[in-house]
Structure to design on (71 residues):
C-alpha cells in the first residue's frame, strides 16, 4: 500500500489471502487470514510480471490509473 505503487518481477507476482484447512473425511474447516491487498491509495498502480500475475481472494485497487502486464 502506498500513494503510487509499482511492482516488477522477472517471475510471478502472487497476491493471495492466507488460508489454513483442517479436518477429516466427514468434516473440514477452512480458516481465512487477513485478505491480501495491493493498493495505490492516491495515485497510479503498475504491476509487471515476467510470467504470471495471480490474485486469489485478494484485492487490487488504484485510486487513479491501474495496469497489470504479464508476459
Amino acid at each position: 500500500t502506498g500513494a503510487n505503487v509499482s511492482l516488477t518481477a522477472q517471475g510471478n507476482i502472487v497476491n493471495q489471502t492466507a488460508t489454513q484447512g483442517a479436518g477429516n473425511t466427514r468434516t473440514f474447516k477452512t480458516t481465512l487470514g487477513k485478505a491480501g491487498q495491493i493498493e495505490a491509495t492516491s495515485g497510479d498502480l503498475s504491476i509487471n510480471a515476467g510470467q504470471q500475475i495471480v490474485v486469489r481472494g485478494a484485492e487490487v485497487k488504484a485510486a487513479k490509473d491501474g495496469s497489470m502486464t504479464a508476459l
